[in-house]
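Batch manifest line 208
LIGAND: flavin mononucleotide
JOB: complex structure
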Amino acid sequence: MDGLVRLPGPKLDSDVSVEAAIFRRRSVRRFLKEEISKEALAQILWAAQGVLIGEHRTVPSAGGLFPLEIWVVIGADGVEATGSGIYLYVPAENGLISRSRGDFRAALAAAAFGQQSIAEAPVSLIITADYERTKARYRQRAERYVHMEAGHAAQNVYLQATALGLGALAVGAFDDDAVREISGAGENHAPLYIIPIGSAPLNLPAVF
Ligand SMILES: Cc1cc2nc3c(=O)[nH]c(=O)nc-3n(C[C@H](O)[C@H](O)[C@H](O)COP(=O)(O)O)c2cc1C
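JOB STATUS: finished
ARTIFACT:
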C-alpha cells in the first residue's frame, strides 16, 4: 500500500493483569509534554481495532462488518520518530497512512469546545463510524450496534493505555462537522469519540 508507515507488531503479554488495568483505569485530563513511543501507539491502536486471526479483531463487531475507523492526531514531538499530522490506521496492514501534515491539536481542542486535554496530549485518536456498512444488514438496529462497537474500542484503548502506564480520556462532547473536517474522514463517516492519550502528571493508582 502506497505511503504506508508500518507499525511494530503487538505484544501479547505484559506484567499488568487485565484485572489490574481495570482497577487502575481512570479518565485523565492533564498530560505531560512527553512523547509516547511508537510501540505504545501501535499497541493501543491494535487494542482498539487490530486484526487477530481471520475475521477476528480485538473488538467484537456486529456481523463482522467493522464500521469503525481510527484516525490518529499526532502533535509536534508527540510520537517517537513520527511527524506531526493526521494518520489513518489500517488494521489489515498494521500501519498508518498519512493524510495531513502539521499539528492539529489546537484545532481539535477548539472543535471539542476548548477541552484542554486534547491540546495537551501528545496524541489523540478519533473514532469514526460508517453507519451505512452496518445498516445494509441490520437496518434500524444498526445505529445502536455501531455505538456499542465504539464503546468496545474505547474501553480497550483505556485499558491498554493504563497497562502501558499512560492516561486516556473518552471525549464525546464536540462539534461533529468540525471534527470530521479536521480528520479528513469522508462525508459518510461520523466522529463518535476523541481519545487523547499521553503520560499523566500524577501516578495512576497502585494495585493493592
Ligand atoms: C460517552 C462518554 C462521553 C464522555 N465525554 C467526555 C468529555 O467530552 N469530556 C471529558 O472530560 N470527559 C468525558 N467523558 C469521561 C467521563 O466524564 C468520565 O468517564 C466520568 O467522569 C467517570 O470518571 P472515570 O472515567 O475516571 O472513572 C465521557 C465519558 C463517556 C463514557
